[in-house]
Write a structure and sequence with these properties.
Elements: H1 4-26, H2 30-42, H3 44-53, H4 58-110, H5 113-125, H6 136-145, H7 147-192, H8 199-236, H9 241-251, H10 259-272, H11 276-290, H12 294-306, H13 310-324, H14 328-349
Helix pairs in contact: 2-7, 2-8, 3-4, 4-7, 7-8, 8-9, 8-10, 8-11, 8-12, 8-14, 9-10, 10-11, 12-13, 13-14
């Protein structure tokens, strides 16, 4: 007769091995699935509302929301890319026409002071013939010699772009299925979990609440940073301030870069066009005002929704960012919220009930 203890140990060993194998299988898609779960939690109420209006057609509702996410993510990227391409094309056209009509020296004469110095320094490094003129053959050979480095850089950029596109596609696929069958999945996890009935559901509700709070606070904070940056752009008279404001809004979603980096880039543009004082002002404005406002606004927006102290929200955001990278801005608050929820459930469901204290308004029980 087999021992129940041995059977249980063998079963737990199989469970651990299968869990490890499952983690290895899901590892390439872990970040995409996590982001899809966060978006699904944030869009849960909207998903239910639209589904009821469409007579409970969950597949159509999920498709509409996924398409909306695609438009919200890809639309601004396409628009900004088109603007940048148009400006770059106009700049190359100006350079080409100026060089053809007035030569390189004419192009240098039309450059602002700081850029003119850079152009003269670059021009002095180019190979010249015996008469002091540029040698086209030597310039071509120098550019060919640097072609390998440029090709490697382009290859790395294309590889990174492909990885981002792949993760985005996996996230959209996971988001569709979570929106379509999310409630069934939550019910199954609640039943299969070794926790008491309802505790897993409570934790998942906490996850949904935190996900919604993080997403909404992130969008609002990015908007606040963009408005603050717009004030700086108008004061410093940055060209195309609305374009830089739009870039600031979308870059604010990327913690590794931050909204302040756009202000610093614009300040470099001002410095290159001969406005050093405005460049210094904009750089300071970007680092101090735009770059740090999210550390104040986001915890204030999240603390009420999460019912958590503002200091805990602040340190969970920074700690998550330091431990997990950009996705840590989501993972940090989720970990903190899950820990507090588990402590609350333990005190409620597992600890012994404490004696009810006598308050001032209550009278002590009569003595026998």
């Amino acid at each position: 007769m087999k021992s129940p203890i041995a059977a249980k140990r063998f079963f737990l060993s199989l469970l651990a091995i299968s869990g490890l194998m499952m983690a290895m299988v899901m590892r390439p898609f872990a970040e995409a699935v996590f982001m899809a779960a966060v978006l699904a939690g944030a869009l849960f109420k909207l998903n239910i509302r639209i589904s009821k209006k469409l007579k409970n057609s969950r597949a159509i509702t999920a498709g509409i929301l996924v398409f909306a996410v695609i438009v919200a993510v890809i639309g601004p990227i396409v628009g900004l890319s088109a603007f940048v391409f148009g400006e770059a094309r106009a700049g190359l056209k100006f350079v080409n026409e100026t060089v053809k009509s007035e030569g390189i020296q004419g192009l240098l004469d039309k450059m602002p002071g700081p850029l003119k110095k850079v152009g003269v320094a670059v021009l002095s490094q180019l190979p010249k013939d015996a008469e002091g003129e540029l040698d086209p053959a030597e310039v071509g050979r120098s550019m060919t010699a640097q072609g390998g480095t440029a090709a490697a850089a382009v290859g790395s950029a294309l590889s990174a772009t492909g990885e981002i596109a792949f993760q985005l596609a996996m996230m959209l696929i996971a988001l569709y299925f979570l929106l379509l069958q999310g409630e069934e999945l939550v019910a199954w996890v609640d039943k299969a979990s070794p926790l008491r009935f309802g505790q897993t559901h409570e934790l998942l509700l906490e996850f949904k609440k935190v996900s919604y709070s993080v997403m909404v606070s992130t969008v609002i904070t990015s908007g606040v940073q963009a408005i603050a940056a717009l004030v700086g752009y108008l004061i410093a008279r940055v060209p195309h301030p609305l374009f830089f404001t739009a870039v600031t809004f979308f870059v604010a979603f990327i913690p590794a870069i931050g909204a302040g980096a756009v202000c610093v880039s614009a300040s470099i543009l001002l410095l290159g066009t001969g406005h050093p004082y405005m460049a210094i002002f904009l750089a300071i404005w970007g680092v101090v005002i735009v770059g740090l406002v999210d550390n104040v606004v986001k915890p204030l927006l999240m603390k009420d929704e999460m019912q958590m102290n503002g200091a805990l929200v602040f340190f969970s955001l920074l700690g998550g960012l330091a431990a997990f990278g950009p996705t840590g801005l989501l993972i940090g608050p989720l970990v903190m919220s899950a820990f507090l929820a588990l402590m609350r459930m333990y005190r409620r469901d597992f600890s012994e009930p404490a004696a009810v204290p006598v308050t001032v308004d209550q009278e002590p029980p009569p003595s026998v």
